[in-house]
Input
Amino acid sequence: MSEYIMEVNDLKTHFHTKTGVVKAVDGVNFKVKKGEILGIVGESGCGKSVTSQSIMRLVGSKSSEHVSGEVRYHGEDLLLKTEREMEKIRGKDISMVFQDPMTSLNPAYNVGTQIAEMPEIHEKKPKKAAWKRAVEMLTKVGIPSSEKRAHQYPHQYSGGMRQRGVIAMSLACDPDLIIADEPTTALDVTIQAQVLDLLRKLRDDTGTAIMMITHDLGVVAELCDRVAVMYAGKIVEEGTIEDIFDRPKHPYTKGLLNSVPRPGRRERLQPIEGQPPNLQNLPQGCRFQDRCPFVMDKCLAQQPELLPAESEQHTVACWLEEEGQPDGDRGTRKNRQPEEAL
Output
């Protein structure tokens, strides 16, 4: 039996528009172990949220949306499931915490009813037992006076409490995997820390795996076990927290780290120059070529594949690693080295 509960192989999600095909996700591969927290990071528009929506089969039903590849959950390909079969999986086996807590709850129903709906549908619990489970879940996520709060409506909750309510809903049926799409974006730093502590505690207590989708490297460093770095619809580097933060290999990963303020550093931040490529008109070679300080002729002609760097667990899609050139010989466009700021 595989140690991975989910294996994503060559996932592609393309949107057909009047102006061309948008390759939002274009050949993504990763695996998730039971009890593991995998962070998926990158700039806005790199394909993180579309990847999660493709896994949950929330895109791909329209003629203009084409999803291909494999999403194997306990060995079964979710992309081959019917919509009725996916309805039994969503919320029960795989849950999702959506990006905006302010709009994730229905304002017409109280929070307890919305949480109780999960065990009612998936576990066929009677209403009284389902309501009891909803109150238990609100208590579990740290909502005070949970019985009283369960009768309240979303507008009576603060932003942090709404996010906790959404997390409570995702946990109501003890899922194997939670996909958290930017769960702390709209929250202040205090509530953000509380939500991260909550997710970590839930993983430790229940063994639930978590896919944390975010652009915040601070959140990744605080919570995740492994990290996959996405750029222009592809994963360009993957490894453990130590690999990515202490031994980054891809120039894009180094650029992300260089653009984040760190305690004790007084140097000016170094933003990544330029803009991500147009997903309707991607370059022939490496997709980071126009922004990379070390671009070579090979980068312009051929797209690199993910290959092991220092270990089998640390992979990177960059010709610099395959060429094995010393840092001083890599730059053809600029002289500065990203390592200098690390």
In short: DSSP finds twelve helices and twelve strands in the chain.
